[in-house]
Amino acid sequence: AVTTIALNGSTQRTITTQIMDWIRASVPLEGVEQADAKIRGFLGEPDGVAIAVGASELNDESPLLLDPGLAREYAETLFTIHTGIALFRARLKGLQTPLVVYPHGFDLSMIWFAGNAFDESQPHLNLGFSPGSPGLPRPYLYAYAHPLPQAYAPPPLPAPTVWHTQGWTGVVLPYDEFREQSNVSAYLVEMCERIFESLNRLLHG
Questions:
Q1: 196 with 190: CB under 8 angstroms?
Q2: Distance between CA 13 and CA 130 in Å, rounded?
């Protein structure tokens, strides 16, 4: 069965409670150690088991006020960005993660691995699109290489991309610099290829 939760006007707390109530009523918890006690602990209810993330971290009572027009614009933009990155991704050889949207920041992201294992501690390149983040309030395409050499010079980058070093180190291409392109997806394929070439040199430098 499909369960819907009204977001507009709800709060983080009420949404969390509704989800937990649905789990209690609909998800088989037999065999899950202290399942109900963990849910009670998550919600801050009596006799709950303490867990790492609890209701105190998901307790915002500010109502969500959704803008359907803005949501539609974001979805259309993200589809266009996804198309460009996916076309670029299809040209890559080697191991790579799916291109997905991460819920913590609504950024669209993928990882390409330079080696033969899905291991983020090993050399890799991350490329994605963020709707905005601390220090970068406007949307942007981003990419970074990991690990960076101990000593390196920032690689040559195609305009209008810039080398970013505040909080994290990598490449930023502001959305406002390419949003008016006649074919945004095709533009992104070209830019992703050029950014990839520049960052890949750092991994093999």
A1: no
A2: 26
The answer on pLDDT for 205 being more than 70 is: no
Angle value at C-alpha 189, between 184 and 194, nearest 5 degrees: 125
Residue 139: per-residue pLDDT: 96
Calpha distance 172→180 (Å, rounded): 17
pTM score, two decimals? 0.76
Give the per-residue pLDDT at 16: 80
> How much is the mean pLDDT over the chain?
88
Question: Cα(187)–Cα(205) distance, rounded to whole angstroms?
Answer: 27
Cis bond upstream, residue 131 (ω within 30): no
Instruction: Determine how many CB atoms are found less than 10 A away from the CB of residue 140.
Output: 23
Tokens 């890799």 belong to which residue?
A: 124
State residue 87 phi and psi, 5-degree precision: -65, -40
Question: How many residues can be counted in the chain?
Answer: 205
Q: What percent of the chain has pLDDT over 90?
A: 61
